[in-house]
Amino acid sequence: MRERYCRVCGDWHQLGKWPHNCLPAKNVAQSDLPAPHFVSDSIEIQSMHDGRHYTSKAKLRSAYRAAGVVEIGNEKPQPIEKPKADRKAIRNELRRVYAEYNA
User: Fold this and answer.
1) What pLDDT is attached to residue 99?
2) Which of 23, 62, 60, 65 is nearest to 43 (CA)?
3) DSSP string covering 45-97
4) Which is more confidently placed, 89 or 70?
5) What is the secondary structure of 4-56 as a DSSP string?
6) For a Cys staple, 64 with which of 33, 43, 60, 69, CB 3.0–4.6 Å?
7) What is the DSSP code (8-state) at residue 3?
8) How far apart are CA 81 and CA 32, in angstroms?
9) Of 6-10, 24-28, 62-66, 93-97, which range is least confident?
10) Predicted structure pTM score
11) Cα–Cα distance between 92 and 101 in angstroms, integer?
């Protein structure tokens, strides 16, 4: 039989038969998540654009948008489109060079 020390009552209990009154009480205000996800709007920062001090991320970003400044780090990178290769021009150039050097 395996037993474990109970921190609630200070006694030893069998692992399969733990007393109901020794189970830790669940706090109803506590979330099931390990830590709630909370993003605050407050920040203490000096703008690199105008030098003013801001305490709100939203006000800082609105000042950036009004000035036309792009805030780097939050945008998803835009895919770079490769130009289509002009196969006909490549083929003609290869034929021209081949004819020039193998004549």
Assistant:
1) 92
2) 60
3) EE-TTT--EEEEHHHHHHHHHHHTPPPTTSSPPPPPPPPPP-HHHHHHHHHHH
4) 89
5) EE-TTTSSEEESSS--GGGSPPPPTTS-SSSS------EEEEE-TTT--EEEE
6) 69
7) E
8) 45
9) 24-28
10) 0.38
11) 14
Structure tokens that stand for 72 in this block? 């780097």
In this model, does residue 78 exceed pLDDT 80? no
Q: And the tokens for 45?
A: 């920062």
Angstrom distances, CA of residue 92 to CA of 12, 80, 97, 98, 102: 89, 28, 9, 10, 15
Tell me how far apart the alpha carbons of residues 57 and 61 are, in angstroms, rounded to a whole number.
6
User: From CA 102, how far away is CA 100, in angstroms rounded?
Assistant: 6
